[in-house]
Amino acid sequence: PSTIFLSDYSVPDFLIDSTTLRFELGEASSLVCSVLALRRNPDAASQDAPLQLHGTELELVSLSIDGRQLDDSEWSQSGEQLSIANVPASFSLCCETRLRPQDNTSLEGLYKSSGMFCTQCEAEGFRKITYYLDRPDVMSVFTVEIIADQSRYPVLLSNGNLIETESLADGIHKTVWHDPFPKPAYLFALVAGKLAVVEDQFLTTSGRSVDLKIYVDEKDLDKCDHAMLSLKNAMRWDEDVYGREYDLDIFNIVAVDDFNMGAMENKSLNIFNTSCVLAKQETTTDAGFQRVEGVVAHEYFHNWSGNRVTCRDWFQLSLKEGFTVFRDSEFSSDMGSPTVKRVEDVTLLRTAQFAEDAGPMAHPIRPDSFIEISNFYTVTIYEKGSEVVRMIHTLLGPELFRKGSDLYFDRHDGQAVTCEDFVLAMEDASGIDLKQFRHWYSQAGTPRLHVSGTYDEQAQTYTLVVKQSCPSTPGQTEKAPFHIPLAVALIGEAGQLALQLTDAAANIESPDNTELVLNVTEPEQRFVFANIKEEPVPSLLRGFSAPVKLDFDYSGAQLLRLMRSDSDGFCRWDASQQLGLVEIKRAITALAAGQQVSPDSEYVSACRELLANTSLDAAMVALMLQLPSEAYLAEIIHPVDVHGIHHAREALRKALATALSDEFSACYSRCESDEAYAPDAAQIARRSLKNTALSYLMLLDDAQSIALAVRQYESSSNMTDRLAALTYLVNSTAAYKAEALLRFYQQWQHEPLVINQWFQVQAMCRLPGTLEVVQGLMSHPAFDIRNPNKVRALIGAFCGQNGVNFHREDGAGYRFLADQVLLLNRSNPQIASRLLVPLTKWRKYLPSAQQLMCSELQRVLADPELSSDVYEVVSKSLQ
Ligand code: DPP
Ligand code: ZN
Asked: Which residues form the Peptidase M1 membrane alanine aminopeptidase domain (predicted)?
């Protein structure tokens, strides 16, 4: 496999003004006939280059230019390229290809899922449908004719407007769709199947009525309400917050069982993984409801940030993904609890993204090179990309940011552009210089801020010294300093102090002068605050104002003050996590010395206070009571001793449960409620706190707690409480757990998404012997290795979220993963390379684990038929 470089970008030699596709869908094979109106690109360097089209795994049936059939000598094929020399300046190319969608297990291009035809073309799947200029800067107007058996495939969909339907002979029917908006091939979609539909309407701000349709399997008709509501909320929000209106009369969503990603934003025909669209209280957890809301909004928002303005090339992927994640997270924050959403986003960033940024696949949000673009749909491109847009929002403020986004959409509507175009629009609209800020696009790695503070009582000043650095990443040893917005406040005995910098060169101030955003731009900088009458505790990186690791040598007392009284929810939560971290480190030391784990009494008191605090959002209380996750600890403690960390953390949790058992019980009872289920912020918060309390109580391993969990399991009418209880039971010594698992399966065996949760609960069980359970479940009739959701629920959850079992000391977990990757490499390379990620982090662990992990990676690398997807990840991780 070869490497593709951003620096090699050149404009396409040809443009495609229109694309007409005809699909004849059949049981054995399908025929695709494409007619492309091609012409030479006047901006191309060469005006006599051959036409080179992308195509892979295609059977070419015929090829003609302007009605004349080409003979074999007029074209040649090599790798994914089909070349035709000596073509005119403008012409019509007609190409027929034969496909076998039913044998397509990669789930890219045209394939079948549960009897329906569907497509996935991003990033480079269209080339599995026909020969084409499969690059996002080639935008074309599509007309699509679909011909299929009427009884098997009554619903035939593509992008844009339905312009014709016709019944043909022999039970065949046809529909024709036309999309007036030029688009790249990656946004093409087709669906044919037997689908039921839920319909609604949305009236846009300028009075256009849009038909909204969600197509699902008949049995799922009762699980569409939440997605529909989320869609309407998202459409309204994008009008209100960004001034973006929907642009067609129809918006379709189709739910598909077998899908590599969460969902796909194809123009007016979004295709969704069932897991990201279906929801109802009996089958879906609160987190599931929130995911549906977030993903529906995300894909809808792409209509502007992605479709109307798209990417010039795949190195610019974060242009649409980072911006759209930022948009959807602001949306979710407005729909629910902003602080909780922020904490969740930061948690994902600080575990998965920081790990990626410190590992062998580290890349800037705009990468310089790749082997396989599918490997770059990463937490870096998405979540760090979103943080970079958020920092622009912080630096500009909401009004100028909106001016910038208006300018970006106006200036580039209908174009395929770059991250640079986005930054330029923000600069032009605001007049704010983002020159140094641009390093965030080109440099990988997580910057580190070392901050120290000194109080000068005599001068009544408080001085913050901020030093920044960034570790080397593959291919980048030296980093230029970043422009980092550092939001700060100073907390005194009675609350936040008024801030007055002696050097006015800063910065953005809050209206009441008690919060500042410092522009950190130098390797080392000093900020002096005047008129400070008491020694304050600094509240730093408020709202997580930049995706960095921050060190400040807080005392326990200072952290307790922040945890009790900081007005910034993120910092308040983070203080609780830092205190938890200190306790876990003490527990590790204690266990290593053969001593008992006993948490600091101040810390226990703070937790007790939290449990009694009914004025604080219950979701915040729950989050603050949860100790830093093992995944986060693995980012902080080096080398990572998975078992040592796990046992220390569990021992500390158990000690807290013992010390606060009455408080946890009381909290549990207080949170019980019999009101009708709603996935709203208040109820979600209460369930979250209730289940956090139950999880602690279960550590007592007493009959009373087990009875509580059993009762909750049996009496819950919603999946959140039921699944939480099942999870705690499965991880306990309760004899009832086998029965609970069996009954759960029997009750839900006809709901694949619920069965996925059943697989996942078992795969994530922390008790010994889980690998054997997982291996056994792989031959369960409900498991299907061709279905990505099942693979993620069982194999992905075990390897990625069950550290103590995956890192079994005999290496069996690693061997299991390598076996599965080698198997999936042949059928679904995208999923195989995704799954491999936990092994690639081998350098973090103890030497004994490193060796075992490495030898499994080597075994994978030795496979002679590695896909480019797996090859890139495994080879880079061994470099
Ligand atoms: N479907 C993926 C997403 O929306 C890729 N565009 O992020
Ligand atoms: Zn996206």
From this structure: 230-438
Instruction: For residue 861, give both structure tokens.
Output: 């690398």
Q: Where are the beta strands (DSSP E) in 547-604?
A: 549-552
Q: For the domain that residue 778 is a member of, what is the CATH number? A: 1.25.50.10
* Cβ contact 191:155 at 8 Å: yes
Q: What is the pLDDT of residues 221-270, one digit of tens each?
A: 999 999 999 999 999 999 999 999 999 999 999 999 999 999 999 999 99
Atom of ligand 1 nearest to the CA of 298: 4
- What is the per-residue pLDDT across 695-718, written as a single tens digit (0 to 9) for each? 999 999 999 999 999 999 999 999
CA of 138 to the centre of ligand 1 (A): 19
Cα of 265 to ligand 1 centre, how many Å?
6
The one-letter amino acid at 332: S
Residues 54, 165 within the same domain: yes
Residue type present at position 359: G
Are 361 and 383 found together in one domain? Answer: yes
**Residue from 186, 256, 265, 292 to probe ligand 1 pocket by mutation (most atoms less than 8 Å from CB):** 265
Element (H, E) at 173: strand 172-183
Domain final residue, candidates 442, 473, 490 = 442
What are the tokens at 488?
Answer: 């700060």
Indicate the burial class of 389 (C-beta count within 10 angstroms; 0-12, 13-18, 19 or more).
buried
Q: What is the Cα 383 distance to its own chain's centre?
A: 7
Residue closest via CA to ligand 1's atom 4 equals 264
Q: How far is the CA of 328 from the centre of ligand 1 (A)?
A: 12
Range 572-606 burial, b when 16+ CB lie within 10 A, else e: bbbbbbbbbbbbbebbbebbeeeeebbbeeebbeb
697 lies in a domain? no
Q: What is the pLDDT of residues 474-490, one digit of tens each?
A: 999 999 999 999 999 99
CA 382 to ligand 1: nearest atom: 7
Place of tokens 């990626």: 356
ipTM above 0.95, yes or no: yes
What total number of domains does the chain contain?
Answer: 4
**299 in active site:** yes
Task: Give the pLDDT confidence score for residue 511 in this predicted structure.
Answer: 72
Domain-located, residue 558: no
Ligand 1 atom at minimal distance to the Cα of residue 299: 4
13 shares a domain with 142: yes
Residues 342 and 490 in one domain: no
Pick the atom of ligand 1 nearest to 264's CA: 1
Asked whether residue 202 is assigned to any structural domain, the reply reads no
Kind plus residue range of the DSSP H or E element containing 817: helix 812-827
Give 838 Cα–ligand 2 centroid separation in angstroms.
23
pTM reported for the whole predicted model: 0.98
Q: Quick one: 436 and 539 in the same domain?
A: no
Q: Whose CA is nearest to atom 3 of ligand 1?
A: 264
Task: Name residue, tokens 């909320």.
Answer: 233
Domain boundary among the residues 417, 442, 467 is at 442
53 and 188 belong to one structural domain: yes
| Contact in structure between 692 and 607 (CB atoms under 8 Å) | no
CATH no. for residue 509? 2.60.40.1840
Range of the domain at 98: 4-194
Quick one: which ligand is closest to 377's CA? 1
Tell whether 100 and 130 lie within a shared domain: yes
Q: Is residue 75 part of a domain?
A: yes
Q: Which residue, by CA, sits nearest to atom 7 of ligand 1? A: 321
pLDDT of res. 505: 59
